[in-house]
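We now fix the convention by which a protein and its fold are recorded. The integers have meaning only within a learned vocabulary of local backbone shapes. A record is reproduced here so that you can trace the correspondence yourselves:
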Amino acid sequence: MNLEIKSSPLRRIVFNASLMLTLFTFGAISGSSQVASAALQQTTTVAPQQGAQEAPYGSEAWRVQRALTQEQMAERVIREDLPYGSDTWRVQKLSESPRRREMVKLPGTNRTLQAFVVYPATKEKVPVVMMVPEDQGLNDWAKAMADEVAMMGYIVVVPDLLAGHGPNGGGRDSFPDTKSALMAHFLLTEQIMTADMNAWADWSEKLEQCNSKIAVMGFGWGGGRAFQFATQRKKLDAVYIFYDAAPSLKALAGLTAPVYGFYAEIDSRVIKSLDGTKAAMAELGKKYEPVVYLGAEHMFVRLGEMPGNTNPANTEARYMAMARLQQLLKAM
């Protein structure tokens, strides 16, 4: 099933920063240094000097080049976000929410885990939605987004995947700026993130208000992580992926829950991958329903409500995607 939501003809601007960061990070967390190296070769912005040979893989020179590349990727992501304006207004928006929210801590193997949890106004038993934010981590946008989903009537759990990895063992809030948080994501491995998310899924199942149903949702980089997590977590009821590509065919075979995709037309890497994902899911007999929002750009759920957004299709796509999400959650 492949639907396209039509919108007004608009200027098309392709942002390559998220493409570069996601490609490398997917390789870096896949557990395969070969995959990470291949992604780096596709996205590197630090070319050897003219006439110089590329540093051998794994060498000290290669590690220096890689570190510089990661830094430039992070800087570009931040630079591309500047025209949209500050995100600090979300703090006020969240402070006005009537919903109960808290930071919860869990003991981990070598560090303390933490997650941002928002509870709906209802006292009835409801599903839990685990949410994986974009590559900027558990920031103001992620917290406001969690509150918005909780407003629909669900418990929302947002694991802080940087918990224990920040200064003095802190989490996302301990990083001094967005760049350092982005850079920290390069150090995360699939094993670490999967273990964290499984711990929070186990915790969620035991919540008194949970009705035993658990869903996972992710945005951008977090969409890829949510998709990957769903391939090994057998007790999930639904998966909601916002604009990121799917894992490998081998990994997809592990899916047990239906997958619903929310994609932007102006997102070349992900759009090019959709036909392959649809074919793979069909071959495996997995339920997969992608929707492409015409004229919208990567990260439209966040961009669509930003003060500096100049693309009406982002706002329209955000509205339609949230309406669809609410319907899907209700039917879960």
User: Anything to note?
Assistant: Residues 6-52 have pLDDT under 50 and may be disordered. The first helix runs from residue 17 to 29. The radius of gyration is 19 Å. The first strand starts at residue 3 and ends at 5.
